[in-house]
Amino acid sequence: MKIRVDLDLCQGHSVCIDEAPEVFSVEDQLDDYPKVKVLNFQPSAELQNQVRLAARYCPNKVITLIEDNE
Amino acid sequence: MKTIPIVSGAKPDTGHIEEYSANFVQFLLRAEAECGVLAEYNLAGQETILLSGVEAQEFFFRGSDENLSRAAAYQAMVPVFGPGVIFDAPPDKMKSQLKIQVDALRYQNMKNYAPVIAQEVEDWIADWGDEGELDFMDEFLELTIHTATHCLLGKDFRDKMTAEFKTLYRDLEAGLQAIAFVDPYMQQPIFEQRDRARERLEEIITAMIDERRNSDIEYNDALATFMTGTYADGSCLTSTEVTGLVIATIFAGHHTSSGTSTWMLTELARHPKETAAIVEELNAIYQQDETLSHNALREMPKMESFLNEVLRVHPPLVVLMRRVINDIEFDGHAIPAGKTVAISIFGSHRNPEYFPNPEIFDPSRTEPETMFAYIPFGGGRHKCGGNAFALLQQKAIFSALLRRYSFEIVDQSDSYVDDLSGMVLRPKSPCRLRYKRRVS
Predict the structure, then answer these.
(1) A6: left (phi over 0), alpha (psi -120 to 50) or beta
(2) What values do phi and psi take at A64, rounded to 5?
(3) pLDDT at B290 > cutoff 70
(4) B174 Cβ contact list (under 8 Å, min separation 6)
(5) Inter-residue contact B37 to B331 (CB < 8 Å)
């Protein structure tokens, strides 16, 4: 699995860090919304389900996943 | 460069403002049907170009703040929010304020709001009895001012909230008509009322801020977030700015959410078969989770598809605008600085390429792949920061409501129509529905 994020869409709602804190963090920006930072672009198998939930529940659809079989 | 077609029917001096004010929804549909992807019209001197179709809408949403200004297009909001707030603040301060506003709606704060909304619904229906009939437009306007103030300003404020607050808020909202986008400062009774309401609301909210600053109690609502938020230089927001953010946040969610709830209930009453399936879904969830956690609210596929279709057919915001600051170009057309560009959410949601038979209410539709066709909350970097809160609120309201009562329309089905008098679309009042307690 590979992770892509569209920072243009991110407003720092922080759902992702609740679901997969090992993979995402949200960092403060000067005069802009906080933005997601991906800590691990190729998460291990045991983290992938959490990552899917993070992508699914992101209110702004910032996170796109490319599954290995695609 | 290609020329941009101009919508027919312009009058000298005033352009299309008369037709636009009378029915801007139909006007925008006509503009697109007549001119295509780019359609120029004139609102009492403000030359505006409607951008239609997914590519043009993406261009609108992806435009940079330097080229396309929201602040310049939304000056009508300045007297509502107050001086120095959001669209009246310098760009860096505006960004900080919006960031602080979204901070209050962050996931970790939102978890506190679901039970608050559920409680408000319980209190609301407590004296309904077994059956009855209500004007639900009125009811939802009241409920959502309760949920908004409770979540944003806390229980203390909500418990002490007077009829005056609601009246003031109504006066403030009534000042936002199409004409306010031409000149929000002209001498008009609705604008004078708006300004008096803004002044008095600031007194009320400032008193509350002062009370909190002198108290040791810790709060975890939006007001607390606004009061502790800081600008880049570390300074806090002034009382006027905090008041402005409170007003702006309630404003963004009040008419929009109450209109959506009313349409939601009306469509549920019109569609008993789909409603039965949603109730079944709810019963299954409640069996496992009697208090209905925030997590349970996230996964309600039937309720969500229905709500999505309500937002497609009845998007609360019809039109979004930006002022062109630097000359831009789209598809071989020059769009010079000084003009306004607009997109029609209502029109986009009726694009047959993405929504076949768009006039048919069909909750089984699948969402288009592109992010720029289904846009009830706008899109791009300025997408409505309250979108997650708004959806959570609808789900919390209808989870509580539908399990206890069933609903029927009272009047002819086609008499439930949009009220076009304001800038936010909602059902025309009275929107009468009959309720009946469910027997388990």
Answers:
(1) beta
(2) -115, 140
(3) no
(4) B190, B193, B194, B422
(5) yes
What is the C-alpha to C-alpha distance for residues A23 and A54, in angstroms, rounded to an integer?
Answer: 10
Whole-number Å distance between alpha carbons of B225 and B421: 34
Nearest alpha carbon to residue A38 among B99, A66, A30: A66
Q: pLDDT by residue (tens digit) across A37-50?
A: 999 999 999 999 99
Q: Do B388 and A15 touch (CB under 8 A)?
A: yes
Which domains occur in chain B, in start order?
1-82+318-375 (3.30.43.20), 89-315+380-437 (1.10.630.10)
Q: Which amino acid is at B418?
A: D
Calculate the dihedral angle through the C-alpha atoms of B204, B107, B393, B161, rounding to the nearest 10 degrees.
Answer: -20
State residue B289's pLDDT score. 64
pLDDT at B440: 66
Question: Does residue B265 surpass a pLDDT of 70?
Answer: yes
Q: Evaluate if residue A64 carries a pLDDT over 80.
A: yes
Token code pair at residue B339: 């003009």
Average pLDDT for B237-247 = 93
> What is the Cα–Cα distance from B286 to B60, expressed in whole angstroms?
42
Q: What count of other Cβ atoms lies within 10 Å of the Cβ of residue A28?
A: 10
Supply angle C-alpha B382, B315, B377, rounded to 5: 20
- Kindly identify which residue of chain B lies nearest to residue A7, measuring between CA atoms: B381
User: Would you mind telling me the total number of residues written for chain B in this entry?
Assistant: 440
pLDDT digits (tens, 9 = 90+) for A4-56: 999 999 999 999 999 999 999 999 887 789 999 999 999 999 999 999 999 99
Q: List pLDDT tens digits, range B357-391.
A: 999 999 999 999 999 999 999 999 899 999 999 99
SS3 B213: helix
Tally of residues, chain A: 70
| Cross-chain Cβ contact B106/A13 below 8 Å | yes
Phi-psi domain of B381 (left: phi exceeds 0; alpha: psi -120 through 50; beta: other): alpha
Using an 8 Å Cβ cutoff, are A54 and A16 in contact? yes
Sole residue written with tokens 């059902």: B427
| Chain A hits for B370, Cβ within 8 Å | none
Shortest Cα–Cα distance, B440 to chain A (Å): 33
Percent helix / strand / coil, chain B, rounded to 5: 55, 15, 30
Domains and CATH numbers, chain A: 2-66 (3.30.70.20)
User: Looking at residue B236, what DSSP letter applies?
Assistant: B
Helix, strand counts (H, E) of chain B: 18, 12
Mutation target to probe the B interface, by most B beta carbons within 10 A, among A10, A16, A31 is A31
Cα end-to-end span (Å), chain A = 9
Ordered alpha helix ranges (H), B11-64: 17-22, 24-35, 54-62
